Amino acid sequence: MKIATFNINNINKRLGNLLEWLAASQPDVVCLQELKSADGQFPAKALEAAGYGAVWRGERTYNGVAILARGAEPVLIRRALPGDPNDQQSRYIEAAVNGVVVGCLYLPNGNPQPGPKFAYKLAWFERLISHAAGLLALDVPVVLAGDYNVVPTDQDIYASRSWSKNALLQPQARQAYRRLLDQGWTDALRTLHPDAPIYTFWDYMRERWPRDAGLRLDHLLVSPTLKGRLVKAGVDRDVRGAENASDHAPAWIELTEPGAGRRSVSGRRAPS
């Protein structure tokens, strides 16, 4: 079972890019972020023609999240993160696909910091931590995938001081991410590639893609019930180099079927 996350950065503007990647990679489940599309403009028919069922929560101009399933219809569980009924931003959706609960998230960026946007980021993170603990208590297979807008450690960013005051690298956000992992979640990419530089985002500014000046913002966390089934993880870097590309590349994991056991993992470099 292949599960991917991809900040598409405007699904209608980059629908061709998305469809091309789906055909080439054929993930079984895809978490999309930054749809930048109202619900009525979501390209459900084009995705259905490509073989994918979908659930989504759109938002005009900003945000928006979706879960796609190849040859199946995701079973919607929730369309918002619990904990703040007044929060109207489209940043979380959760569905069951082939026996796995999939939470797709787009955590707030938080810039500029300090300020209300950073406070919102941290408050949203606290809600995520609380909900994640509840999911673990269910003792079912869960994947929390998406754009976390957090660079977990200095290993997850190119050598630079230019981001030091950015909300993505602040100690409070990194500590929140660590607290989430400490519940028992496994950071799949870093676990299978402990030493390799792994980037999922390259800003459009300052030639950062040609210079490979990247950051790892997109993460797939798996619950303890899935850790033993995790066999591969990588980033489809070439997608970022295509014409009209998002500033993110898809990240993905592969899981064995239940009871199949874990195969040995060869290599330490994230596949490109």
UniProtKB/TrEMBL annotation:
Coiled coil: none annotated. The record marks 149 as: Transition state stabilizer. Pfam families: Exo_endo_phos (PF03372). Mg(2+) binds at residues 7, 34, 147, 149, 247-248. It comes from the Bacteria. NCBIfam families: exoDNase_III, xth. Belongs to the DNA repair enzymes AP/ExoA family. This is Exodeoxyribonuclease III. It comes from Phenylobacterium deserti. The gene is xth.
